[in-house]
Each structure stands twice: as structure tokens, then as C-alpha cells.
Amino acid sequence: MASAKTSWSEEYFSCSICLDVFSSPVSTPCGHNFCRTCINKFWDGQVQYKCPVCNQIFNTRPDPQVNIFVSEMAAQFRTSVRVKEQPRVKPGEVPCDVCTEIRLKSVKSCLECFMSFCQTHLEPHQRFTILKKHRLVEPIDRLEERMCKIHDRFLELFCKTEQVCVCQSCTEGDHRSHPVVPLKEEYEVKMAQLGKMEAEVQQMIQERQKNIQEIKDTVKRSKAEADREIADGVQVLTALMHCIKKCQDDLNQLVKERLKSTEKQAEDLIKELEQEIEDLTNRSSVVKQLSYTKDHLHFLQAFRSLQDPPPTRDWTTVEVRPPSYLGTWRRFLDQLEETLKMKTKKLRDVVQLKRVQQYEADVTLDPDTAHPKLILSKDGKQVHDGGVAKKLPDNPKRFTHCLFVVTRQSFSSLRFFFEVQVKDNTLWYLGVARESINRKGGTMFTPETGYWILYYYNGGLVFKGNPDVRNPLRAELQKVGVFVDYDEGLVSFYDVEAMVNLYSATGCTFREPLYPFLCPCLCDGDKNSAPLIISPVNQTD
Known about the structure:
Helices cover about 35% and strands about 20% of the residues. The protein is α+β, with helices and mostly antiparallel strands and about 550 residues long. Among the domains are: about 1-85, Herpes Virus-1 (2-Layer Sandwich); about 220-315; about 360-535, Jelly Rolls. It has a seven-stranded antiparallel beta sheet, with helices on one face. α6 packs antiparallel against α8. The protein starts with a helix and ends in a 6-residue tail after the last strand. The relative contact order is 0.06.
């Protein structure tokens, strides 16, 4: 029946005077219904009292009575209309606790009734005096969870000592001596902490995302290094297998040539033997024919020619010896071992140079450290002896005893590589030096004093150490590469053009920043006048 009522049109519950839903509806004697206020105002201006609908005239002014049925139906209709106009509850919103068929969105929660109300069901709290005293707040979900389980009162305070929510009665009992504040105050404090916590969490997330990216980058680099390792391995092993194949082909060729020589010797001897057999066979035929002759004269004359033996070789001293390959194998194995050793070193140097070139560092010479005789290019990439000492400001970083200069850049970790063109120079020093080296006086240029350098003179190389390590050169140097692995304690020098490792110092101890170091040494007329040039790395294929 309720559904039937709510489906009625508004005209059934509208006053024909104000055209609105009945308010305190009353009935006239003719049976028509009007709002009490509307019909009274209508009759106040009339001489005759008649019905506004049917125009029935009444002798005396009627006293309209309340139509209870219409009043109740109009009230229900008004409520249903308001319900339809109100928003229905959505996920995450607080529903009205009074609504039954259609749950509407709550607009207030009552802390006395412990219920939430939509706009329609909130109406009694706005109309009745006793309900107006109730404390209404913004809609709160699950009000029962906000009640103190001990005192059955609303939790509206926060105990700072025990960090729990309490009711007013709690502050008069177990929490009497504890500092308490309103929930809103503590909420604002905790929200501020939450903001800081959120920032910290976001920072932790970013750090972990960074860790993930670093791990991914490591895996990516590892894959690239693995691919490069495989490619280098294939290149090296292919080259070595080519050497082995060539050695095998040379051995096969030598064995075949020796076999062919033996076969040729045997073939020639067989031909010679066959010729002697043919000659002896012919002699045997002559002898046999002569044995049948009865002519004494002919026999004696022919026998005389048979007395001389045929021209044959003494075959007792002739033999065909099979070739021996024992010494051949030994020689070829020795040759292969030496070839593989040289090839392996060459390939190792090539692969190493290709790898270290990837750590190219862009370095420029520091004019504040250059000896007064040195001339530096504007870009800081070239240096040579100018012959005359310039007057320069005193600088604790400047070398004043030897024609040295270091770069602006220093390195105190990881790896770095740089190349220097030394073409047409007959004397130079090249390498790295630590920051605290003696720049004002003479010293031994050894690792103990902070220098890891290669020295070139008289067509030979010397790594300055204790003792020095000498290394003769097979060809003129054009460009020298210097590689340092700070963490591994390694300094390596390379002939870039020949792709050969000139020398590697291992087990070095670096406790402070290292600087690339150059020394062009003194020029002598046209000799040793070419500059040392820091060159860009052109990675080898």
C-alpha cells in the first residue's frame, strides 16, 4: 500500500488555492479539502461564503474540521517527495540509520541517539525542543565503535600518557592524572606527524625505487659486459683457433711433401729396377738362344759380348726409408706454443685496451701547477718547453724544480683513462701523481714518493720504481694511454697504435687524490720540441 501511495500524483495532495501540498488540511461541508490557512483567507474577503471548487453557497461561515486521513496522506506524500529529492548513499558515505527501503545519505550524526540521519529523518531534531539539545556532528560511520566500552559514553578525548582515546568519565577514573586533549587537537598533531611520516615513506619508496633502478642498471651493465666478454672470447678463441688451424695446415703440408718426396724416390727406384729387369730379361733371352746354337764360330763370337756384365746398380746399399715425423711434431708444437703465447698476449692487450678506453676522462692541464718554463695551449691540452722561465705569481701548487704539470681534475676512486700523443719526442715523463708530492724540490720519482710514471729516453722505456723496470721498444711510440683502477691499485701504460701493454704496476696503494701528470722535458734545438698532447680517445674496433 505504501508503494501505491508514493505513486500517486501530486495533484491529489495539493490545495486548489495555493496549489501546494496540503498543510493542515481541512474539509468543507461540500467535501472539498483546502489548507486551513488558505480557506480562511479566502472567506475573509467574501460576502457570501462559498466553496472555491464547486461554488456551493453556505448560509453561515462554516467551521472547517481537520481531515485526519488527508492530513496523514499528505504528510506521507510530502515525506516521500523529500526522500526522492535527497541524494542516495554512495560507497564510502555514511548511510541514514532510519531509512529502510532506500538508504539515503546522512547529513548529521547524533552523539546522544548514536544514530545518523538523512535530511528527512533529521527533521524531529530540528523541531522538538528536547531533541534540539542533542549534539549533532558531521556524519560519522560506525558510531558504536566510538563508544567507551566501560562507561558507554562517546570517545571524545585523547590520553597522551597511554596514547588511547577516552571518554569524559575515563578522565575521572583511571586517567585522572593523565594529560588529555580533545580528539581534534591530537588529530591535528598526528596529522602533522602523518605528513612527516608520509614524506619519510615517500623518501623510502624513492630510495627503494632508486635501488631497484640501480639493480636493473647493474643487471643491464652485467648483461652488456657478459655480451662483450662473450664477443671478446669468441674473437680471441677464433684468432687462436686460426693459429692452430694454420699450424695444422702447415704440418699437413710438410707431411704430405715428405710423403710425396718418398713416393717420388720410390717411383724413380722402381723405374730404374724395372729397366734393369728389362735389360736382364733381354740378356737372358740372348743367352738362351745362344745355348741352342751349333755354330762354333758364331757361339764364340757372341759369347765374347756376353762376358761383360750389364751396367747395373749395387742394390744392396739402396733402400727407401719412410720419413720420420717425431722431430717435426716437436718442432711444430714448440712453434705453436710460441705463436699462441705471442698471439694470446697480443689479443689480451687489445682486449684490455678496448676495455680501459671506455673509462676515458676529459682532463685539461692546470696552468697554476705548470713550471714557469712550460708553455700550455689555451685549451689546456698541449704542453712543451718554452726555454725561458716566465715570471709567475707564487703558488704553492706550482712545480718550480722540474718541468712538471698536472691536470685540473683529480681522481680518488673508480677508474679513469687518458691518452697522450708523444710523437716526435725523444724524452718525456708520463703517468699519475698523488696530491701531496713535493713540488718545490728534487726527489726520486717513485711510487714511494707519490709518482707512478713511465720515462722515455734513448729509444727505451723505464718505469720509475725501486728498482727501475726497463722495457725496450720495437717501434717508435706515437700515442701512450694511461689507465688507473684506483680501487684495485693498478696503473697500466699502453702503446695505443700498436695496441700493446707497455707496463702495468699492480698492488699500488692510493690514499689520496691522483692527478694525471706530464713532463715534456727540456728541448734541445729542434730535438724534443714537439708538444705532449692530451688526445681524445678513438676507441679501437
